[in-house]
Design brief:
By secondary structure, this protein is α+β, with helices and mostly antiparallel strands. Helices cover 19% and strands 33% of the residues. It has 13 helices and 37 strands. The strands form 8 sheets. Strands 30-31-33-32-34-35-36-37 form an 8-stranded mixed β-sheet, with helices on both faces. A 7-stranded antiparallel β-sheet has the order 7-8-9-10-11-12-13, with no helix packed on it. A 4-stranded antiparallel β-sheet has the order 3-4-5-6. Strand 12 and strand 13 form a beta hairpin. The longest helix has 17 residues. The protein is globular. The two termini are 19 Å apart. The relative contact order is 0.12.
């Protein structure tokens, strides 16, 4: 395998400290289990507590990465400048009216973080509720979490994470004075107001699982907060939300493929939560309130692609659920929102979304559709926070069209463009081409593939390609705009998103067909996308760089084991690659809830064998691998840092090529890399510089 990016001498070699473990009569050997710190939970919060030997190895790898990428520093600076030039620095959102005010987020020139602002509803002087830059100034890492304004608009609850470990601290700010109350609440998840004095929040436990709901009274000691709900099933995660009608707080508990909902009337927040329908294996549902009924989006009654039902508020159990939008195979109902006089929902069919709506009293099957013209595009619902309204806000974008925000009047069907994302350095959509093709997979499944390229790029097989995918948890990859990608596309790359099984682009069956023992379909689909691109003349073997993060890192990790010959390079961002060991360890934050995706290899020999056959770490083999760039974060609670570290250590002593293999570990952040809108560009520039070097363009 010829490489444009050869390895440097003196690469770090992790010490081998053999360990064994036995499951189902099978002995697993692991030379690098020691990279998992015994105090990993402490180190997640305070990375300096990482043991010295582990820290030294990760730092040695970081130094090696710095040497290997040294020749790309000027290119990375150029890429950051390009990408920053496409960002309107003094940007602001379209204000959203809510009660007596209109709320917005606004950036000032040069600022990494936004200002949270409001003005009187119909215009007037702006009030800065929260200057996130000021709050972030004392921290290397700062991410704003939830914000929620009290129903009387006097108090803003807000939370922030300052480590990357996703432990958020909650504060209460007086909207008039701008001062925070003395009390703070640590380790908070989702938040919701019941009334002007009563607040509900979720707390995460020592294993980073959100499992308790508390009720807080403003001005009281948080230590005295009332425990309202506790989830004892470690597979389930809990969240709270206030319904748009304002009449109920909803407590959601569940895992990937199973939910249960409890409600509390906001008029009586001390009331014990009441369950809508007790949990049932494999049944999912979410609710919204409208008048004397709840609307329910659910897969009940074998509605694989979901349907909408109603039930009386007074008697909401499943015995009283009635279809209002029956199930239709292949039409995935993905979201529903209710106003007093309208029901709005979002569907997806053949990997394309659509928005539909119906006036209360009109059968949903007769609902209207908002139509669009492009071949591939993405939509987003932004319903008004107000319940008594005819206004629906939505976003539209495509690979060639920057995001647009529209206000749609449901009563007269008028559409008003409120904002098009400005590209200060210039952008002409006519310079780019978006295509949607299908790729036949190994079993005949037709995989949708979205392609973006510059109109001047020759489609004769000579172009390099960046092929991106995810393919897990039912997450669908939108055919949306990214100004960052233009830095590759303008240099001759074809940028491709493969809508592989594991997502829900083609309905729920598309997701179900990549679970448990069928997970390998995800990898075959991705390979099929690459082969279809070669057949179509978009690129050629040995010119494809693949990229995926988290569960998408599992994807690229499995594919590079299976078909390294197709590839010029691999970008694996915080990759979930030590799948078998992780899913065998029920003490890790996400593991119990993951069993519904991969199977439980602790109890099931079949699940054990299924995972073992594709887990990237367990299937590293003595073969040539292309150049690889891997990232990790010490504070990452989702994909713990030792997974990519172990994978790289094993690859380095096993592979037979002389191509570069690098891991860059962020020693002070977590799953999502750097914080701040400009700082994040450095991560993209690093990946793009690697891709350009891997295909020989630098």
């Amino acid at each position: 395998m010829t490489s444009h990016f050869p390895a440097l001498p003196d690469a770090p070699m992790a010490e081998r400290r053999p360990t064994t473990a036995e499951f189902h009569g099978v002995t697993l050997h692991d030379d690098y289990a020691w990279l998992r710190a015994d105090n990993w939970q402490e180190a997640m919060r305070e990375p300096d507590l990482l043991p010295d030997d582990i820290k030294a190895y990760l730092q040695a790898e970081n130094a090696y990465y710095a040497r290997a990428m040294a020749g790309t520093e000027e290119l990375q600076e150029t890429l950051v400048a390009e990408m920053r030039g496409r960002i309107k620095e003094d940007d602001s959102s379209v204000p959203m009216k809510d009660g007596p005010f209109a709320y917005a987020r606004r950036y000032t020139e040069g600022a990494e973080h936004p200002l949270i602002t409001r003005t009187p509803r119909d215009g007037g002087d702006e009030t800065i509720l929260l200057d996130v830059n000021k709050e972030a100034a004392a921290h290397d890492y700062f991410v704003l979490g939830g914000t929620a304004m009290s129903p009387d608009h006097n108090i803003m609850a807000w939370s922030a994470d300052t480590s990357g470990a996703e432990y958020y601290t909650l504060r209460f700010r007086n909207a008039e004075t701008g001062q925070d109350a003395a009390q703070t609440i640590a380790d908070v998840g989702s938040i919701a107001w019941a009334d002007a004095q009563t607040f509900f929040y979720v707390r995460v436990d020592e294993n980073h699982r959100p499992n308790k709901v508390f009720r807080h009274q403003l001005g009281s000691d948080p230590a005295e907060d009332v425990l309202v709900y506790e989830e004892t099933d470690q597979r389930y995660y809990v969240s709270v939300t206030r319904m748009r009608s304002g009449a109920f707080i909803a407590i959601y508990t569940g895992m990937n493929d199973e939910t249960e909902v409890w409600v509390i009337p906001t008029a009586a927040p001390e009331t014990a939560p009441a369950v809508i329908e007790p949990r049932t294996t494999g049944m999912e549902y979410q609710i919204d309130h409208q008048g004397d009924q709840f609307l329910i989006l659910t897969n009940a009654d074998d509605a694989l692609d979901f349907k909408i039902m109603t039930t009386p508020v007074a008697a909401p159990s499943r015995a009283n659920w009635t279809d209002v939008l029956p199930h239709e195979a292949g039409r995935m109902v993905i979201d529903v929102a209710t106003y007093a006089d309208w029901t709005i929902w979002m569907e997806r069919q053949d990997a394309l979304p659509r928005i539909r709506y119906a006036r209360t009293g009109t059968p949903l099957a007769e609902g209207q559709e908002i139509t669009f013209d492009e071949e591939a595009f993405a939509l987003g619902l932004q319903p008004s926070p107000e319940y008594e309204t005819d206004l629906l806000r939505f976003t539209y974008t495509s690979p060639t069209t920057p995001p647009q925000i529209f206000d749609f009047d449901l009563s007269d069907e008028s559409r008003t463009l409120r904002k098009t994302t400005e590209i200060p350095s210039g952008h002409d959509p006519a310079d780019y081409v978006t295509r949607r093709i299908t790729a036949p997979s190994h079993d005949g499944a037709e995989v949708p593939v979205t392609i973006l390229y510059h109109k001047d790029t020759a489609l004769d097989g000579s172009a390099p390609c960046l092929l991106y995918g995810y393919g897990s948890y039912g997450a669908s990859m939108p055919a949306s705009f990214s100004s960052n990608r233009l830095s590759l596309v303008d240099r001759g790359f074809v940028y491709v998103i493969a809508h592989i099984r594991g997502g829900e682009e083609k309905g729920r069956a598309w997701y179900e067909d990549a679970k448990f023992g069928k997970k390998v379909n995800t990898f075959h689909d991705f390979i099929a996308a690459g082969e279809a691109l070669i057949k179509g003349g978009y690129t050629n073997a040995g010119q494809i760089v693949i990229q995926g993060g988290s569960a998408g890192g599992l994807l690229v990790g499995a594919v590079v084991n299976m078909r390294p010959d197709l590839l010029a390079g691999v970008i694996a961002d915080v990759p979930f690659v030590d799948v078998l060991n992780t899913i065998l360890d029920e003490t890790l934050p996400l593991t119990p809830g993951e069993w519904s995706q991969w199977g439980n290899p602790i109890e099931s020999r079949q699940a054990f064998d299924d995972i073992r056959c594709y887990s990237p770490y367990d299937n590293v083999t003595a073969q040539d691998y292309p150049p690889m760039l891997v990232t990790a974060g010490v504070s990452d609670p989702r994909v713990t840092y030792w997974e990519p570290a172990k994978w790289v250590a094993k690859l380095r002593v096993t592979k037979t090529d002389e191509n570069i293999l690098m891991i860059k570990t962020n020693m002070s952040s977590g799953h999502f890399g750097k914080s701040g809108r400009f700082a994040m560009l450095e991560d993209s520039a690093r990946s793009y510089a690697f891709a350009l070097k891997a295909v020989g363009l630098v």
